[in-house]
Amino acid sequence: MVEFSINNINVKAENGMTILDAAKSVGIDIPTLCHMKDLFPTGACRMCVVEVDGMRGLTPSCAFPVAEGMVVQTNSPRVRRARKTIVELLIENHPQDCLICVRNKNCELQDLSEKYAIREHRFAGEKKNHAIDISSPSIERDPAKCILCGRCVRTCNEIQKIGAIDFTNRGFRSNVTTPYNKGLNVSDCILCGQCILACPTAALREKSHSKEVINALTNKDKYCIVQIAPAVRASLGEEYNLPIGTNVTGQIVTGLRRLGFRKVFDTNFAADLTIMEESTELINRITSSGVLPMFTSCCPGWVKFVEQNNPEILNHISTCKSPHEMEGALLKTYYAKKMGLQPENIFVVSIMPCTVKKYESDRPELTEENMPDVDAVLTVRELVRIFNMAGIDFNGLPEDEFDNPLGVSTGAAAIFGTSGGVMEAALRTAYSKLTNQILPTLELNDLRGMSGVKEASIIINGKQINVAVVNGIGNVREIVKDVQEGKSKYHFIEVMACPGGCINGGGQPIHQKPEKIKKRMDVLYNIDTKSSIRMSHENPIVLKIYDEFFGEPNSLEAHRILHTSYIDRKSILRNNA
Question: Is 325 among the residues known to form the active site?
């Protein structure tokens, strides 16, 4: 431990701790733009500069360690002038269209402008001018709003380890872009949206489907149905200043009905359906010497990653559609027939914590007779904007229940929104099917948490089944390499592209607080614990649909409606390069 002074406060801190972290430990806030917790500091933006006695220049607090006897000032006139100048220069090279910007009132540059009382333009000169990249079906990139903090680059390169974007050029011409400045649609981007969560401005944002949804709701010929993913109910309340970790399922249902949706269903129902199909597929592969290990297919970012980088292992991925696509397909087949509706008149909207789901809903493989399973995908952020536009007072909404029959789900479905949840739910059902007994411990704690790779083993009928959960796409390459080389010890592997799973998806409320992820996870685990039915194969409506429509899991009809295929995008990208 070392002793030193910050703003005349005597502080004890661990040797090697940065000035920034030491200041936070005693409640002193130092502004940052480029800093990212747990990543090696760069000191690039200089917003965090402080004055250290004995040093001629100002010091970047995020990259400078504390020392015995050091005297630090974080709010001296010299420090304030430096920070204010940095913000002023950033603003002068910015579009300054705050009133029409999607990040208005949720922008770090805007917050800093207010904090340092910037009320005039002191600098004038040439501004950078870049075209907006709208080539991707999920993400829009506006380089004119980029402040070169580098957080998106570090997220893509160091956390996700994709490398779809990076810095190019120098000085005034510095820019963050894709290789050869081509569109995101022909880059290595998997559209996970983690860069959006990292971006302090609106340089990166989701491609909005709000207009399409609003138009459908006002079209009398459209029968609008909406479904919400498990992770949405655990995070949307944050946008209305509710305590982090508040379950707002009932209010969301009421709000969606007030928007005009005819039916409000739960994607959790389709998560149970996914487990029926995926666990059966796994059992068939294990018992009939099929291709192992089998990977889950719920995350379209992960599927896109394999198609672009390792198409030779596509036969290892489950052929099951993701839950919201299964539900959309079911709505336009079974439900349409049951209710006497024309499938082409049904407009299915998915409320997702994810940006890559927009890309997924647009895949030709998930379209039947020019009719997509899901017509539009809204992120949590987009739904909040629509609620606000409609004048809905979310905090004052009463709670309501999902519509039946596709609103009934189990606890196993709820945990789909967390890293490890799909695996946990699948093992509950696979174990029961193979042994006719209940898994001794439904909570598989080894598969929970934020570790990069989590693993477990269970004994089923005397055979040891090894499973792994990959938390974040940046941790998957060694797992894939072992599969390619035939050295993998696993039978079943879950991969979620976003660290933490869907609970931290690219379409969630924007935050920079890792503790939020844990609290969101707890919401879903609590739903599971309190559920009267906790295993997907015991969902009575799912069983009824198999009796009436599919016959059994993995039947020909189930494969036609609930399963899909994949393509080699690596060759396509190479040809477009």
Answer: no
- Clarify whether 365 is annotated catalytic: yes
Helix (H) / strand (E) element for 384: namely helix 380-389
Task: Output the CA torsion 231→232→234→236 (10° steps).
Answer: 150
Torsional class of 181: left (φ above 0), alpha (ψ -120 to 50), beta (otherwise): left
Confidence category of residue 126, pLDDT binned at 50, 70, 90: confident
Name the domain boundary from 149, 180, 206: 206
Active-site residue, from 3, 365, 478, 548: 365
Domain count for the chain: 3
Expressed as residue numbers, the domain containing 198 is 120-206
- Under DSSP, is residue 27 helix (H, G, I), strand (E, B) or coil? coil
- In angstroms, the CA 237 to CA 476 distance is 32
pTM of the model: 0.95
Q: Which two tokens stand for residue 160?
A: 């996700």
Is 565 among the residues known to form the active site? Answer: no
**98 catalytic residue (yes or no):** no
Domain end point (choices 183, 206, 229): 206
Catalytic residue among 419, 502, 516, 536: 502
- Return d(Cα 50, Cα 297) in angstroms, integer: 48
Asked if residue 151 and residue 201 are part of one domain, the reply reads: yes
Confidence of residue 554 (pLDDT cuts 50, 70, 90): very high
| pLDDT number for residue 577 | 58
The helix (H) or strand (E) run that includes residue 188 is none
Select which of 238, 307, 360, 382 is catalytic.
Answer: 360
The answer to whether 348 and 373 have CB atoms below 8 angstroms apart is yes
Q: What φ, ψ does residue 224 adopt, rounded to 5°?
A: -85, 125
Catalytic residue selected from 51, 278, 327, 382: 278
DSSP state of 156: I
Active site residue 357: yes
What type of residue is 484?
Answer: Q
- Could you tell me where the DSSP H helices lie in 320-379? 323-330, 336-339, 356-361
Is 199 annotated in the active site?
no
Q: Of 298, 299, 320, 498, which residue is the catalytic one?
A: 298
Burial class (CB in 10 A: 0-12, 13-18, 19+), 130: middle
Q: Which of 51, 108, 140, 281 does the annotation list as catalytic?
A: 281
Q: Is residue 572 part of a domain?
A: no
What are the pLDDT digits (tens) for 265-300? Answer: 999 999 999 999 999 999 999 999 999 999 999 999
Q: Rounded distance, CA 183 to CA 359, Å?
A: 14
Hey, CA dihedral for 192, 198, 202, 203, is it positive or negative?
negative
At 47, which CATH number?
Answer: 3.10.20.740
> In the chain, helix, strand, coil percent, each to 5?
45, 15, 40
Q: Are 159 and 116 in contact (CB under 8 A)?
A: no
Residues 181, 271, single domain; the answer is no
**158 within some domain:** yes
